[in-house]
C-alpha cells in the first residue's frame, strides 16, 4: 500500500513538472509575439512628414529585422491621432489594454509625443519617438520608456540658429506655432542666439494649422530683425514662407530661417521659392549609396515622396528595437527592460550610421546643415539639398551634463 501511494505521488509530481515545463515553453513562445503601433497624423497638417509613410517604414523594418524567420510573430497597426493629445491617449490606452501593443512609433506633434511618453511610462511599454521635436522628451519629462530618435528643438536651434548668427544674422523675430513644439523651438533657438551674441527682438504666436500669416508677417517686418525665425512645421511653415515672399520679406533685406523643414516642405514650396533656405536635418535620402538604396525600396511601396527624416527614424528605431528583443531572447512586454537593452547596444543602421542612446533617451548621431539648391542646380527628381556643414554627434545635441532629465541625476 505504501509503495502504491509513493508511486501515485511520484506520478503526480511528474505530471505537475510536465505541466510546468509545458507552461514555460508556452510562455516562451508567447514572449516572441510583439505588436507595433504607428500612431501619427494620417490626414492633417503633418501627414506628409510621418503618417502613412511611417507605417510603410515600420512594415519594412519588421520584414528587414529577420525575426519573422526566427519564429517571431510581429504585427503592425496604425491610427490617426489628429494632432490631439486626448485622441492620442485614448487610442494608446485601447492599443495597450486591448490590442496588446508593445511599442509606439512616429508620434509627430510634440503635444501628442509628450502625452504618449507619459502613457508609455505608466503602462510600461516602449515609446520610440521620431516625429516630435520638443527637447523636453529627454529633458524635464524624460522617461525610462522613451527613446527620442531623430531630432529635437535643441539640435535644430544649435544647427541652424548658430550658423545664421555667425553669418551675421544677429537679430531675430519669431513666428511661433502656439503649442508645445513651437514654444520649445523658440525657447531653444533664443538661447542659442543670445549665447552666440545675438538678440531676440520679439515674437508672435500663431494658431496651429494657420492659413493667414499676414498680421504676423507685418509684425516681423516692422521689427527690422535680420532673421525671421519660423518656429513651426509642415503646412504652417510652407504657408508662412509663401506669404513672406508676397510681402517682400526677403526682397526687403530680411532673411527667413525655417527652423524645421522637411523634404516634403521643399517640394511643396518649389525651388524657386525655397532656394537658399538653410536648415538642419539628420537624414537626407540622397546622402549616400545606403540611403539611396533604402529610398528606392521605400518608394516602390510609398510612391508619394522619398522618406522624410521622421519616416527614416521609424525604420531605424525599430531595427534597433528588434535587435534588443533578439538580444533579450524574447519578452517584448517589459518596456523598461527593452529600452535599457537598447541603451546598452550600440546603434548601427544604413540610414543614420553608427551611434548610441544616452541614459536620458536621446539617440546620438550627426546632424547636417543644408541649403536648398537653386532650380538650375537640381539635376533629377527630389534633388533639393546641398550640404553646407556636418555637425558631429558630440556637438549636435545638448551635452549630457546640462540635461535636467531625472534619469541622469539618478545614474
Automatic annotation (TrEMBL):
Pfam families registered for this protein in UniProt: Peripla_BP_6 (PF13458)
Coiled-coil boundaries: none
Keywords: Amino-acid transport, Signal, Transport
Domain of life, per lineage: Bacteria
Signal peptide: 1-22
InterPro entries assigned: BCAA_transport (IPR051010), Leu-bd (IPR028081), Peripla_BP_I (IPR028082)
GO-annotated biological processes: amino acid transport
Domain named Leucine-binding protein: residues: 35-373
Similarity comment text for this entry: Belongs to the leucine-binding protein family.
Protein's name in the database: Branched-chain amino acid transport system substrate-binding protein
